[in-house]
Amino acid sequence: MLHFVKRGRPSRSTGKTKRPSGAWPRRDTGENIMTITATQLKEIRQEFATLKPASVTLEGNRAMSVKEAVFALAPTLERMRKRGFDTQEIVERLHEKGIEVKAPTLAKYLSEFRRRKEKKRDTLPPPICNS
């Protein structure tokens, strides 16, 4: 349904008219000047520096996803695998500590961790030799 108005052409999707160019007053393209002084900015900066968030979340107390936990433990878990633990044994140890993960998921996360680690190693610049 199209609605026509004296100015502009109708929009097909909403039925509202679009304003022709020049219908709105143009803005001054210069920099906007605020009525605030340098002293006020200094006071604001000092006040903001002392503000505390409403709820403090310490890095050590935040909830982590299973994937984050596995990535944080990945170097240790990889060493366990090298020492002879199989994936199911590692899963059981993680369950004992409250980390609920299935063996295929753990294997996937560890594989992803290894890929990221190798990718980082590959992207490092070669050492500079001063000879």
Order of helices and strands: EEHHHH
**Which structural class matches the secondary elements?**
mainly alpha
Terminal CA distance reads 79 Å
Our Rg estimate from Cα atoms comes to 30 Å
Number of helices: 4
Q: How many strands appear in the DSSP assignment? A: 2
On the 0-100 scale, what is the average pLDDT?
78
Shape: elongated
Spatial strand order of the main sheet:
1-2
Strand content: under 5%
Q: What is the percent of helical residues?
A: 40-55%
Residue windows where pLDDT falls under 50 for at least 5 positions? none
How can the largest sheet be summarized? 2 strands, antiparallel
Mind explaining what this structure looks like?
The protein is mostly helical and 131 residues long. Helices cover 47% and strands 3% of the residues. It contains four helices and two strands. The chain has helices at residues 38-50, 66-82, 87-96, 103-123; strands at 9-10, 17-18. Strands 1-2 form a two-stranded antiparallel sheet. Strand 1 and strand 2 (17-18) form a beta hairpin. Helix 2 crosses helix 4 and helix 3 packs across helix 4. The longest helix has 21 residues, at 103-123. The mean pLDDT is 78.
Annotation keywords:
elongated; 131 residues; 2 strands; 4 helices; mainly alpha; two-stranded antiparallel ribbon
